[in-house]
Structures are given as structure tokens and as C-alpha cells.
Design a protein that fits this description.
There is one protein chain. This protein is of the alpha/beta class. It has a single domain, classed as Purple Acid Phosphatase, chain A, domain 2 (4-Layer Sandwich), CATH 3.60.21.10. It contains 8 helices and 12 strands. InterPro entries: Ap4A_hydrolase (IPR050126), Calcineurin-like_PHP_lpxH (IPR024654), Metallo-depent_PP-like (IPR029052), Pesterase_MJ0912 (IPR011152).
Length: 247
Amino acid sequence: MIAVITDIHSNRQALEAVLADAAAKGVRRYAFLGDLVGYGADPGWVVDTVAGLVRETGAVAIMGNHDEAAVRGEAPAMREEARQALAWTHAQLQPEQRAFLAALPLSVQEGETLYVHANAFAPKDWEYITGRIEAMRSLHATNARYTFCGHMHEPMLYHLSGTGKAGDFKPQPGVAIPLLSHRQWLVIPGSCGQPRDGNPAAGYALFDPQRQELSFERVPYDAETAAARIRAAGLPERLGDRLLTGQ
């Protein structure tokens, strides 16, 4: 069983809750799909935690666009709130933490499974998968049966049959989904640290490659504390406020 976690965005409280939930469900391996940092108040703790799991358990970790920008210390193409948070994040991170982020790959393929932050067709360009067209473009760009993407903060599942028939649906939390072997699948787990689908609970996905089964999980966490830490750090208040509503 693999826990696929993405878009933590320096949210210690959300990641702690997700890791505890995953461990209770018997998870032994983790894949982190990028954007470990940005927005939130605990970038160093999050980077150290993920780096520890990479080192100690062989977890997969991918670079996200916020990770890349935090290493550089600037993000000219991003919104003002994101730029402020990333400049602050860069100053908070220790050199070894920035080095860990800088060394992360854009994608990792293990057998039939591809892990990437944004998409499979142009990982470095950080283009979003906003609907079926982009999802099919991503699936056509890889031979992987299962593609896991972050970047989008709303959980979604896409599939493509061998005859070219495409489909998509919004998953329900905690419901096991059989991943039929005659289809390719693209999974967007949703954000751990900053959900934007109207549900403030932290999101992640559970993937069982042996059973060819997937479930999307939601975990309540102490969002009030995460928001208070953002305010206490002097970061834009909206970055904390939106944690309380999942918007």
C-alpha cells in the first residue's frame, strides 16, 4: 500500500494528520508529488520530514513549482501572495533543505507507475490538468498505466481505454475504486496542505498496486493552528483563512 501525498505547502498539522492516518491503514511506502513548501508556516519541518522518509523508507519525492521557486527565492510568474510566501520560505530554509529541494526530480517512473507534479507531457512547464483534454494529453505522453499528478488542489480521476475512450469523475472519499487493467489512469489526489474543493480536510490517495485498487482519503486536522501559525509568521492572512474553508 502506497500513500500518495501532494501539495503539502508547509502545513505541518495537515501532514502530521495524514501520516498518522496512513500509518494506521498499514501504509509502508510514500510518494510525495511536489510543492512541499510555499504558503504555510513550517517549511523546514516539512522538508526534513519528507527527506527523512526518502532516506529511511525509500519514499519517492518529486519537485513542484513552489519547491523550485523556494530554492531560487523568487517567483515572478506567481501571484503576489505566493511570491511573498516563497521569499519568506527561502529565508527560513537551511542550505541543506534548499539543496534537498533543488535535487528533486521532475518525475519518477517505477514499473507501470509514473509520479509527476504537474503533468506527463511537459513536467517542467508546470501546466495544469484542468480537465479531460489536458488529462488525455498527459496520458498519451506516457506508457505508464498509472500516472499520479499533483499541482491541482482538487481530487480527480481520469481514465483512457485501449480504444481511445476517455472518462473522468470526482471521487468520493474512502470509496475503493478498482483500476481496470485495460485502461490507463491519471490520479490527482488533491492537496494535503491546502485543499481547494470546499472541504478543508487534508487529502491524499491510497494506492494498492497488487490489488489494482485506489481510494481517495480525507483527514480532518487542526487547521486553526495551521492558520494561526501563518498569521504569526507575518504571511498574508488569506493564506491562513482559506485553510478553514478549503477554498
